Amino acid sequence: MSLEALQSSVLVLNKGFTPVHLVTAQRAFCMVFKAVAEVVLMEDGHLGLYNFETWQEVSQFKKRNGLAGQESEWVSTVSYDIQVPRIIRLLFYNRYPNRRVSFNRRNIFARDENRCQYCGRKSPTSELSIDHVIPLSRGGRTLWANVVCACTGCNKRKGGRTPEQARMSLVRRPAEPRFNPLIKLRLRRKKYYSWKQFLDEAYWSVTLE
Predict the structure, then answer these.
(1) pLDDT tens digits, residue range 9-55?
(2) For the purposes of burial, counting CB atoms within 10 Å of the CB of 15, is it exposed (0-12), middle (13-18) or buried (19 or more)?
(3) Can you list the domains of the chain with their CATH numbers?
(4) For residues 87-102, b (16+ Cβ closer than 10 Å) or e, as one string?
(5) pTM of structure
């Protein structure tokens, strides 16, 4: 099996086709196999809904006839290959998701696109830290509007001062995102384009698992 394919993201819709959260492809396969969810496929304006068995059949047909797109991912078993779904729909859950974006380190890095908000340089997460624009020691609070990504050098240079005191400027003022920044990042990749049909600005605040 392709470990990379199994770790791909799958958008989960509730029974009413509203985005709820994201899961890995491995989790999505388990949910469809246990019949708590079904695969959603939009092609040429037509909506298809498939259980595990029928999705397996569709996958094999597409494989035999060369109908799978270049961005398709596959998982191989001993007896067959099956395409990784991009979207699944829960069969017994119809609650609406939380509209607020979770305030956590992962979403802060995603909002700032892993760029230091002082020098603008993009770095791996391991080389970034969270900086309080107005330091806690000066009355700053731990809020969306007061935290930014900062590289080690800029964080050290700024120290316990405000940007003005350190003669540093922000690339952009921090603010609470209106939609989940991780989904925005994934939508830049072609393999997740099918999500756009179910995501509009009102639903881009889905909670991630």
Answers:
(1) 899 999 988 888 889 999 999 999 999 999 999 877 788 999 999 99
(2) middle
(3) 3-98+181-203 (no CATH), 105-158 (1.10.30.50)
(4) bbbbbeeeeebeeebe
(5) 0.59
